[in-house]
Amino acid sequence: RRVAVLISGRGSNMVSLIEAARAPDYPAEIVLVVSNRPDAAGLARAEGYGIATAVIDHKAYGRDREAFERALDARLAAAGADLVALAGFMRLLTPWFVERWFGRLVNIHPALLPAFKGLDTHERALAEGVKLHGATVHFVSSEMDAGPIIAQGAVPVLDADTPDSLGARVLELEHRLYPHALDLVASGRARLAGRTVSVADGPA
Ligand code: GRF
User: Fold this and answer.
1) I want to staple 87 with a disulfide (CB 3.0 to 4.6 A). Which of 6, 13, 24, 134 is the partner?
2) What digits encode the pLDDT tens for the residues 137-172?
3) 92/13 same-domain check
4) Can you tell me the distance from the alpha carbon of 166 to that of 178, in angstroms, rounded to the nearest whole number?
């Protein structure tokens, strides 16, 4: 599979996917990294790996979300991408784009969905006193952070945690979880089954 990674910031999850995809037996290749922000630090990191990058600045399209997405879609098509991985991509996508890519569009969210959708997940987890927190990779549907779940991982919440210390523990987990989940999707072991995802055991 030919994967495009969409970022808005530092791109540490993007790096974990790029690193994993360097293994010869990994079922996906990262063919393009796109940022909606020209100043995203992840762009230089992708270039350092010799990966093609593109900036599609949403601000150039004003309030016309679909025009932004049509430009994005055209760039993905030009790269021959057939799978899209959101990695800290901070734009909500319209139903047009999500439906066009449904089943081929995945996201990582720093919480155990369906708990803590949206932003500031680590702060909210601490405020709720949950004892387990984690990360989720899911297919994107038009409802935010609500698509079919592909893989999850959990970490303990410790008494002394701050949002930063908890976030760092979750991020380390994300860097293992996302390559695993993309492997499941790209190899065809994770398949959509209605509102959920069934995952076949063992190698593809
Ligand atoms: C990650 O925590 C990811 O789960 C969330 O945004 C953060 C992105 O970090 N969606 P990075 O850009 O991958 O370093």
Assistant:
1) 13
2) 999 998 888 999 999 999 999 999 999 999 999 999
3) yes
4) 18
| Atom 3 of ligand 1: nearest residue by CA position | 88
- Residues with a catalytic annotation lie at 109
Taking the C-alpha atoms of residue 204 and residue 186, their distance in angstroms, rounded to an integer, is 10
How many A from CA of 107 to the centre of ligand 1? 10
The number of domains in the chain is: 2
- Structure-token pair, residue 188: 């065809």
The token pair at 193 is 């089954």
> Which atom of ligand 1 is nearest the CA belonging to 12?
14
pTM, two decimal places: 0.97
Residue of minimum CA distance from atom 2 in ligand 1? 110
Within a domain: 141: no
- List, chain by chain if needed, residues with CB within 6 Å of any ligand 1 atom: 7, 9-14, 87-88, 108-110, 171, 174
> Annotated binding residue at 93?
yes
87 and 166 in a common domain: no
Q: Is 24 exposed, middle or buried (0-12, 13-18, 19+ CB in 10 A)?
A: exposed
Rounded Cα–Cα distance for residues 73 and 142 (Å): 16
ipTM: 0.97
Same domain, 13 and 95: yes
pLDDT in tens, 107-124: 999 999 999 999 999 999
